[in-house]
Amino acid sequence: MLNKIQRKRRIKLAKGKPNIKVGSFWIRNVFIVLLIFSFSIFFAYKVFNGDEAVNYLLKINNLRNNNSAIQDELDTVNLKYQMLEVAISKKDEELKKLKEENNELQEEVLFYEKIVGKRR
Predict the structure, then answer these.
(1) 9 or 70: which carries more pLDDT confidence?
(2) Which of 45, 71, 83, 101 could form a disulfide with 50 if both were Cys (CB 3.0 to 4.6 A apart)?
(3) DSSP characters for the chain?
(4) What is the Cα 46 distance to its own chain's centre?
(5) Which positions ≥6 away from 51 have C-beta within 8 Å?
(6) pLDDT tens per residue across span 88-106
(7) Distance between first and last Cα of the chain
(8) Cα–Cα distance between 58 and 49 in angstroms, integer?
(9) 50-82 pLDDT, tens per residue?
């Protein structure tokens, strides 16, 4: 007999149509969640001094911008320095060649002075 009652209950439950309420209930829940979320953000901002944190982040951003500008200036100065080093090394090579030519010319002058004699 117990089996018959349980079987009838199962059949009754299986034959019954589900009752689903469709309405604006979920819209209200979403609105409440968004409202609570916004209040919690505002509360956290006030409790943890959000303005100081924002100022700190802005200061970090400004320092990064300054750092990148200074880095760009440093790169241009390094490039100019390297160009000057190349120019100076070329001038040094030219100066060495001119000194060698000068020494050769002085040797020739001394040689001819010995042969001809000094003019005064």
Answers:
(1) 70
(2) 45
(3) -HHHHHHHHHHHHHHSPP----SSHHHHHHHHHHHHHHHHHHHHHHHTTHHHHHHHHHHHHHHHHHHHHHHHHHHHHHHHHHHHHHHHHHHHHHHHHHHHHHHHHHHHHHHHHHHH----
(4) 30
(5) 45
(6) 999 999 999 999 999 999 9
(7) 153
(8) 15
(9) 888 889 999 999 999 999 999 999 999 999 999
Whether 83 and 89 have beta carbons less than 8 Å apart is answered as no
How far is residue 19's CA from residue 12's CA, in Å, rounded to a whole number? 14
Tokens of 12: 């009754």
14 has a pLDDT exceeding 60: no
Residue 18: is its pLDDT beyond 80?
A: no
CA dist list (Å): 37 to 31, 42, 44, 58, 77: 10, 9, 11, 25, 52
